[in-house]
Design brief:
about 70 residues; 1 helix; two-stranded antiparallel sheet; alpha+beta
């Protein structure tokens, strides 16, 4: 219908990018999508590096989260 809607108290507008994972769902305005993607990619890489370091310190085998 190309009109804004509200889901769970969150405004979703036409063109918003919806991103979901095991932790939740977010609506990103299209005008900010590229910037958010760059930041999210950086955070994911950092999270995986930190997880790998912790696993190594504990002597655990790496898993699919790295």
């Amino acid at each position: 219908m190309d009109i804004p809607v509200a889901l769970g108290g969150v405004a979703i507008r036409p063109g918003d990018v919806i991103v979901a994972d095991g932790d939740g769902v977010i609506a990103v305005p299209r005008c900010a999508a590229e910037e958010v993607a760059v930041y999210a990619s950086r955070e994911l890489r950092s999270d995986k590096e930190n997880r790998r370091a912790k696993y190594m310190a504990l002597g655990w085998e790496p898993d699919h989260t790295m």
